[in-house]
Amino acid sequence: MSTLAFRLAASHDIEQIRCIYNQGIEDRVATLETEPKDRVYMEAWFQEHQGRYRPMVVETNGKVIGWASLNPYSHRCAYNGVADLSIYIDREVRGQGVGSALLQVLETKAKEEQFHKIVLFTFPFNVLGQGLYRRMGYREVGVFEKQGLMDHQYIDVMIMEKML
Fold first, then answer.
1. What is the mean pLDDT of the chain?
2. Fewer CB atoms inside 10 A, N or C side of the chain?
3. CATH number for the segment(s) 5-163
4. How far is residue 133's CA from residue 158's CA, in Å, rounded to a whole number?
């Protein structure tokens, strides 16, 4: 794989971010969302993710191949130092170290933005994702049983965290 470049996402990245996110929705391994997102949805999402929540992208040869964002864990001020994680990698390059590299860059950004902890929610059956998180020092906190509905079936959701 060519050299990876990391940067803050810009509005011209929205379409590539949307395509990668929709892959995650289609593959049913990364989110409880079941309907593909359109440009209008992603533009609103991008506007909500500014300041300390601005997404990062990773690209190679000028093409975005992954993105990650920090999201508010809670709107209560007591949780201001805790961020929820979203990370999506283009299916063509999953398992090739792109996620690890992107997550490392995002964690550095999280520290700069004065987060002290990152939490994430994943599926117990998402072995590739859990491998990434465990390699990066995240620990399993527990499992919400039958937490969400996807394709008419209740799905368990695992909680993981990392202290920064």
1. 96
2. N
3. 3.40.630.30
4. 12
